[in-house]
Amino acid sequence: MKDWSDIYEFLQPKPPLFCPEAPSLTQKTFLRTLGLEALFGGAAGGGKSSALLMAALQFVDIRGYSAILFRRTYADLALPGALMDRFLAWVKEYDDIHWNGATYVATFPSGARITFGYLNNQNDYLRYKSSEFQFIGMDEVTEIREFDYRYLFSRLRRPNAGP
């Protein structure tokens, strides 16, 4: 690296696409995390759910990318201002993003997908046993059973090319 500007550029996260908000400094730090797991805590209204959406959106320009975002129940996903509702508000102006309300899957022009899922019942994790994702996010992870959380790591796969 030549100078501090190179380091600064390296530390910048990939800008999330289709996102109407500029990430805060804390959200940028979260988005730049390279580890397998990242926790983002804090008070209500601190930007945690938006950061999770931003993280899922970072690579939707890559063909084959697939992300899934979880809450404990479908109702928790769909409440006004909740994760799925916020996502739909963010992308509503983009005609080239296809939303399937029956499967809770958004498909992007690249073919990338973001799925919204829930883990309410004891065997709900089985719904995802043949799936693979490059990003798995859990909003309000303290409400998710530890077994489900650990199992879903087996669905986290890196494709031959991509994120």
Mean pLDDT, as a whole number?
A: 85
Strand order, sheet with most strands: 2-3-4-1-5
3D shape: globular
Low-confidence stretches: none
Largest sheet: 5 strands, mixed
Which percent band covers the strand fraction? 5-15%
Q: Would you list the SSEs in sequence order as H and E?
A: HHHEHHEEEEH
- Please report the first level of CATH classification, the CATH class of the domain at 45-155: Alpha Beta
Number of helices, counting only DSSP H or I runs of 4 residues or more: 6
How would you portray this structure in words?
By secondary structure, the chain is α/β, with parallel strands linked by helices. It has a domain at 45-155: P-loop containing nucleotide triphosphate hydrolases (Rossmann fold, 3-Layer(aba) Sandwich). It is 28% helix and 13% strand. The chain has six helices and five strands, in the order αααβααββββα. Strands 2-3-4-1-5 form a five-stranded mixed beta sheet. β3 (105-107) and β4 form a beta hairpin. α2 crosses α3 (48-57). The chain is globular and about 50 Å long. The relative contact order is 0.17. It holds the Pfam family Terminase_6N.
